[in-house]
Design brief:
The protein is mostly helical. 57% of the residues lie in helices and 0% in strands. Bound molecules: heme C (2 copies). Keywords: Electron transport, Heme, Iron, Membrane, Metal-binding, Transmembrane, Transmembrane helix, Transport.
């Protein structure tokens, strides 16, 4: 690379990065025209604006008790361990973790659950189960080559956190699926129409849901629903249950 090109890149970075940071601040605070006294600049208002990002992340990581190590790490532990805050061993930093890994999985899990030095119990997230913390410890340990096994998610915990077709499924149906299935647009089997559904369910409910998830003829994949597969499944169950 020529010296000229290098100077160009350095200049672009010097000018570009502060401009980028300013733009981000403006986005987060709702623009420069608001001064600190305006209602949109209170801590509560700013928090409310940025909160959906954090909440969405927690939602994605699954119901309490069933979150895996990566999900727990990303929603809780990362806030310190990603950068090595407060003297915490940095994620994937083999040097920082070496001596700790040799304490053994059980000891590390105990320390993470009870707290150690500047680390609060469970990283400050009291709602985590001991197993969820253990999964996060395994995830972090394995990032530096330890061969820890994440405690499995108990079948009960997964079932207990199942998305309820009658609640969440109905909500999705009412906002997305009803557009076609409400009146039978484009040949869609109509809601609660026993005859229209009976022939489709000959291969079983799960088969029909699988077909719908992939999309079939005039029905786009998941009916155009952009949420998780599990949520789509709940909506389909709600729709199908209504025809029984
Ligand atoms: C508020 C910051 C913070 C958060 C959040 C945090 N940690 Fe820590 N963690 C620390 C610090 C600081 C240490 C080093 C403590 C020491 O050795 O004195 C540490 C150490 C550890 C250790 C090593 C313990 C040992 O025996 O050497 C493990 C394992 C660990 N953390 C797991 C986790 C897990 C799992 C989470 C998420 C559930 C988490 N941490 C969240 C700050 C944090
Ligand atoms: C744009 C219109 C449209 C939307 C929105 C839509 N569907 Fe459909 N759906 C159809 C049509 C059309 C069919 C029939 C396709 C065929 O067999 O040709 C169908 C069929 C199905 C079937 C039966 C599949 C089979 O194997 O026969 C299921 C289950 C289903 N939809 C579920 C849903 C769910 C759940 C939603 C909402 C998340 C949804 N659909 C949203 C148009 C739609």
């Amino acid at each position: 690379m020529s010296a000229k090109a290098l100077i160009g890149i350095v200049l672009a970075a010097i000018v570009g990065i502060p401009v980028f940071i300013l733009l981000v601040i403006q986005l987060a605070t709702g623009g420069m025209k608001n001064n600190a006294a305006s209602p949109s600049m209170t801590n509560e208002a700013v928090l409310a604006r940025i909160q959906p990002i954090g909440l969405a992340k927690l939602d994605d990581s699954g119901p309490p008790g069933s979150r895996n190590g990566k999900a727990v790490y990303e929603s809780v532990c990362m806030s310190c361990h990603a950068a090595g805050l407060a003297g915490s061993p940095k994620f994937a930093d083999a040097g920082a973790w070496g001596a700790r890994i040799s304490k053994g999985f059980a000891t590390l899990v105990e320390h993470a659950n009870k707290g150690l030095g500047a680390m609060p119990a469970k990283g400050g997230a009291a709602d985590l189960t001991d197993d969820e913390v253990a999964r996060a410890v395994a995830y972090m340990g394995n990032a530096v080559g330890a061969k820890f096994t994440e405690p499995p998610v108990a079948a009960g915990a997964a079932a207990g956190g199942k998305i309820d077709p009658a609640v969440k499924g109905k909500e999705i149906y009412d906002s997305v699926c009803v557009a076609c299935h409400g009146t039978g647009v484009a040949g869609a089997p109509k809601f609660a129409d026993k005859a229209a559904w009976a022939s489709r369910l000959k291969g079983g409910v799960e088969e029909a849901i699988k077909t719908a998830a992939k999309g079939i003829n005039a029905m786009p994949a998941k009916g155009g629903y952009t949420g998780s597969d599990a949520e789509f499944h709940a909506a389909a169950e709600y729709l199908i249950n209504a025809s029984k």
